[in-house]
Amino acid sequence: MIRIELLTPNGHLFSSDTYNKLFTMHGVVMIFFFLIPSIPAVLGNFFLPLMIGARDLAFPRINLLSWYLLVIGGLFAIFAMLAGGVDTGWTFYTPYSTTYSNTWVIATALGIFVAGFSSILTGLNFIVTIHRMRAPGMTWFRMPLFVWAHYATSLIQVLGTPVLAVTLVLIFCERVFHIGIFDPALGGDPVLFQHLFWFYSHPAVYIMILPAMGVISELISVYSRKPIFGYSFVAFSSVAIAVLGFLVWGHHLFVSTQSFFAGMVFSFLSYFVAIPSAIKVFNWTATLYKGSISFETPMLYAFGFIGLFTIGGLTGLFLACLGIDVHVTDTYFVVAHFHYIMVGGAIMGYLGGLHYWWPKMTGRMYPEGWAKLSALVIFLGFNLTFFPQFILGYLGMPRRYHTYPSEFQVLHVLSTAGASVLAVGYIIPVIYFIWSLRYGAVASSNPWGATGLEWRTPSPPPVQNFEKIPVVTHDAYDYSTTIGEVIEVG
Amino acid sequence: MTQHIDSVKTYALVFIALVFLTLLTTAVAYVDLGPFSPVVALAIATAKMLLVALFFMHVRHSTQLTRLVVTGGLLWLAILIFLTLADFGTRGWLGVPGR
After folding, report:
1. Residue B33: is its pLDDT beyond 90?
2. Is the domain defined by A18-289 classed in CATH 1.20.210.10?
3. Which of A133, A220, A331, B6 could form a disulfide with B10 if both were Cys (CB 3.0 to 4.6 A apart)?
4. Of B86, B89, B98, which has the smallest distance from its Cβ to A257's Cβ?
5. CB nearest to A195's CB, from B87, B93, B96
């Protein structure tokens, strides 16, 4: 709907108010209720215990509680949308959110607050599970990189999410009780909100992308039949991204009257995140070198991820640069950048992982031809949607406007056309995944010939994951011993 | 892992200390200490936090790993405060409005 509205320069479909509510709804739902929980909740909950040889997570009931909290949070957000929506953007910037907006700010914030606890509990559960429940022989440096990535993600969830919760409570306090925290008229400081918000919300990007990186490490290794090049570097780079990610939030505040000196420090620190990110990308490509590469659907998503994440990451360096950021702040350049990371990165990782583990989760294979086609359609549709937005932003098209000068129309039409292609690309997997549940070929326990423990149990796994807890004697991705070897079931 | 349990007397003393510190916070609020008012209030709050963490939350007798978790949490709070103050503390140094 947003993209259709942007087909024409004058915006015939919606009023400005409705458009504000639409992009807020898009941001809130996609970030807090899809991207953050997607890989950890769907793939992490299922495979993290399997991959370390455990029967379940350390706290199954807390896991259930975290599911209930996510649903309750989602219900609040849905209520807010149905009741009239909220128009602050997903960022809830003050003083608009606390003083001026007449929309359902509190209900939406409450939904995010509750869903945040779901995220914290998942992180807590993963950390304890990884520390306490590894199978005999599963040392830290034998763990699959998917598990390392989730460990780093969990650290962010536990350390960062409470700050978001506190920030949302402070919005509530100021909006309802008029306690001066962010409003200068009451003795507050609006930029303080941005500090608190981005202390969580910048690392939150890594909550979305790190699990995807974990998935990609698995895929690259399996489909090139090689151990990941520089395993320990890739493992530690996840932790490094988690830690460094907490030191860079001020790059969102370069034009928000933040002190110039703080801006310099944040700019400098932001460049550091490129190091562990580049370590991953280079090590994945080095893994491919002389590998026995095959091009199954998950691997296509992995290639897509590497390309799109690299573009998203490198344009992030543009934004970390104080001078360039002033030019492109709040333009489509930023929109394109974060969609390359969050959609091109996180969703490609999610879909790659979903295809890779679908046979294990359901016991059925998906149709490979359709899956390859949809991976290609998604890749093309994604680039057609978001690449023109880099140009739009650089030319000065601001984000969050539904009207624009007519010279931008060609690029907007391209972007809308891309979004339509992308939508088709997303609908095809929905159809064939549902189809495969009933009609797909029955999957063996290890259809990809992979090394992980999750492939040493039947597809789908029994309730207790393993009939007998496995004993680990090899490093992760040790293809020297398993190529051609039939892995026993049970 | 051995479980160390403090005596009721210890808990009672900690409780009394917490009540005393709360009363002290209230009393100090009536005294004008100028710029030191928030410093004193935060110092008392920190002391109370330490008492709760060390005794009621058993951090004093916990494993190294638990202590690491607690220290990590405090370190992250310090990052939040320090880097935010890096902005607030250096605003206006350039003499340009808004910078």
Report:
1. no
2. yes
3. B6
4. B98
5. B87
